[in-house]
C-alpha cells in the first residue's frame, strides 16, 4: 500500500504545485508554451481550452503479485491529448515519481511533436508509478500485462499506439503486443512500436531518437558557425537517448567531454572514449568510476564549458536557478521538457540557441511511424532506407522551424510549437465540431 499512498501524495503535491503559477511543473511549462503559441496565432479561448485539455485520460490501479507471494498496488495512467490528425501516439514511462499531470504534459508534447514532423498521429503518453529497477523480469512482465489489460479498452493500432519511454524497452513492448493480441484472438503487430525486430519492429528504431538528435545538433552547430569537428559537447543522461547520442556525436567528430547519468558525471577535456565508456556502463551500470575520465558533479555537467549541451534525461533540469550559468552556445533537447519557460527566456536573452524537444527528439516517433506503417503492410524496409528517410524528415522540419522563427523573430521553441498548434488547429477546424 505504501507505493500507492506515496504516489497519491506526490500527485496531490503536483496538483497543488500546478495551481501555483510560480512553481514550474511539466504541465505548467507545457501549458505556458501553448498559451504563447495561441497568443501568437490569435486563436480564441475555446480552441485554447480544447488544446490545453486532454481529450481522454484513464487512471488505473494495477495490482502486482511479487515473486515473494506478497502483492503491491501501483498507479498507472494513459492520457490521450488529441486525435485531430490521427490515432494517439506516445511512449509508456515506468518511474517512481510518475503522476497524472506529468503524463498530461508529455501527452501534449507528443501532439505537437507528431504534428511538427507531419506524422499522422495525435499525442498520448502512459505512465506507471513504479521503479523498474526494484523488480524481477517476471514481476515486470506481470505488471506490464496487467497494466495493458487495464488500458485495453482505449488502445489499438487505429486508436492509440504505445512505445518505449523512460524505464520501458522492447521487451515491455513485446509483452504489451502479446497481451493485446491474446485478447483480440489474433496477432496485432501495429498495437505498439519499439518492438523487437523479430516481432515486426523496425530496423533503426532503437537508435532513432539519438540519430535524430545528432542530425539536429550538427545542423544547429553549423547554423551558429561552429564546425562540429572543432566543437565540444556535454550529454546529460546515458540511457536510451543519451548513450547513442554521445556515440553518434563523437563518430561525427564532436569531442564529447562530459557525460552524466543519475548516479554522477565524468569529464575528459581531450574527449571521452564513448565505446570504452559504454563497455564500463554495461559492466557496472553507471558512468561513475570510468577510468578514462575525471569525476564531475552531476549538476555541474549542465554548466560545463562546452559548445553543445544535450540534456537527454528528464524534465525541468534547466531552470531559473542554473540557466544563467549555462556555457554552451547550443542546447539540443534530447529529453522531453528539460527546459522551463523561465530558463528559456534567460538563455534566449543570453544568445543561446535552444532546439526544442518536439523537434530535436522527434526521431523516435518518426521511426515509430515507419514501424507502424511497415507492420500494417507486413513489409519491411532496410536499415539504410529507414535512416535516410529519418534524416530527410528531421532536416526538413529543422529548415521549416528555422525559417518560421527567423521570419517572425521567434525562439525555435515558440516557432515549433506555433507551427504544430497551427496544424492541429487546421485539422480540428476542417473536421468541425460534432454534433
Ligand atoms: N517516448 C518517445 C518520445 O517521447 C517515443 C514515442 C513514440 O515513439 O511513440 O518521443
Number of domains: 2
Find the CATH topology of the largest domain: Rossmann fold
Radius of gyration based on Cα positions: 21 Å
Overall mean confidence score, pLDDT: 95
Short description:
The N and C termini lie far apart (44 Å). By secondary structure, the protein is of the alpha/beta class.
Explain this structure:
This protein has 435 residues and is of the alpha/beta class. It is built from 14 helices and twelve strands. The chain has helices at 2-19, 26-41, 45-52, 100-116, 137-151, 170-184, 208-223, 242-251, 274-284, 341-349, 357-360, 363-377, 383-408, 412-431, and strands at 56-65, 71-82, 88-94, 122-128, 160-164, 232-236, 255-261, 264-267, 294-296, 308-311, 330-332, 353-355. Helix 4 links the parallel strand 3 (88-94) and strand 4. Helix 2 (26-41) packs across helix 14 and helix 7 crosses helix 12. It is globular. It binds glutamic acid (GLU).
Write out key terms for the chains shown.
single chain; Rossmann fold; seven-stranded mixed β-sheet; five-stranded mixed β-sheet; 12 strands; binds glutamic acid
Amino acid at each position: 500500500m505504501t507505493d500507492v499512498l506515496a504516489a497519491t501524495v506526490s500527485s496531490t503535491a503536483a496538483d497543488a504545485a500546478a495551481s501555483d503559477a510560480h512553481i514550474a511543473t511539466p504541465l505548467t511549462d507545457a501549458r505556458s508554451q501553448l498559451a504563447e503559441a495561441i497568443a501568437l496565432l490569435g486563436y480564441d479561448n475555446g480552441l485554447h481550452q480544447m488544446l490545453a485539455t486532454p481529450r481522454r485520460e484513464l487512471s488505473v490501479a494495477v495490482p502486482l503479485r511479487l515473486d515473494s507471494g506478497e502483492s503491491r498496488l501501483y498507479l498507472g495512467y494513459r492520457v490521450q491529448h488529441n486525435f485531430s490528425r490521427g490515432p494517439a501516439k506516445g511512449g509508456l514511462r515506468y518511474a517512481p515519481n510518475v503522476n497524472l499531470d506529468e503524463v498530461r504534459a508529455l501527452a501534449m508534447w507528443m501532439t505537437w511533436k507528431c504534428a511538427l514532423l507531419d506524422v499522422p498521429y495525435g499525442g498520448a503518453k502512459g505512465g506507471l508509478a513504479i521503479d523498474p529497477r526494484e523488480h524481477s523480469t517476471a514481476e515486470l512482465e506481470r505488471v506490464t500485462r496487467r497494466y495493458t489489460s487495464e488500458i485495453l479498452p482505449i488502445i489499438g493500432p487505429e486508436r492509440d499506439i504505445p512505445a518505449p519511454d523512460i524505464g520501458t524497452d522492447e521487451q515491455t513492448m513485446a509483452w504489451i503486443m502479446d497481451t493485446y493480441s491474446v485478447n483480440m484472438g489474433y496477432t496485432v503487430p501495429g498495437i505498439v512500436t519499439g518492438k523487437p525486430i523479430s516481432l515486426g519492429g523496425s530496423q533503426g528504431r532503437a537508435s532513432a531518437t539519438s540519430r535524430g538528435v545528432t542530425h539536429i545538433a550538427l545542423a544547429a552547430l553549423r547554423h551558429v558557425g561552429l564546425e562540429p569537428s572543432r566543437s565540444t559537447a556535454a550529454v546529460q543522461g546515458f540511457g536510451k537517448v543519451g548513450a547513442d547520442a554521445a556515440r553518434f556525436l563523437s563518430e561525427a567528430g564532436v569531442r564529447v567531454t562530459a557525460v552524466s547519468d543519475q548516479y554522477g558525471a565524468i569529464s575528459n577535456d581531450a574527449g571521452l572514449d564513448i565505446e570504452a565508456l559504454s563497455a564500463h556502463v554495461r559492466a557496472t551500470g553507471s558512468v561513475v568510476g570510468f577510468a578514462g575520465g575525471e569525476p564531475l558533479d552531476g549538476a555541474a555537467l549542465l554548466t560545463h564549458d562546452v559548445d553543445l549541451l544535450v540534456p537527454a534525461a528528464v524534465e525541468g533540469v534547466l531552470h531559473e536557478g542554473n540557466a544563467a550559468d549555462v556555457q554552451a552556445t547550443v542546447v539540443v533537447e534530447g529529453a522531453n521538457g528539460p527546459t522551463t519557460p523561465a530558463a528559456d527566456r534567460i538563455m534566449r536573452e543570453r544568445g543561446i540557441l535552444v532546439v526544442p524537444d518536439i523537434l530535436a527528439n522527434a526521431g523516435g516517433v518518426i521511426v515509430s511511424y515507419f514501424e507502424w506503417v511497415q507492420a500494417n503492410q507486413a513489409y519491411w524496409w532496410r536499415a539504410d532506407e529507414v535512416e535516410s528517410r529519418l534524416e530527410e524528415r528531421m532536416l526538413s522540419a529543422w529548415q521549416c522551424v528555422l525559417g518560421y522563427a527567423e521570419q517572425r523573430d521567434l525562439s525555435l521553441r515558440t516557432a515549433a510549437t506555433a507551427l504544430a498548434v497551427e496544424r492541429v488547429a487546421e485539422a480540428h477546424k476542417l473536421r468541425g465540431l460534432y454534433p
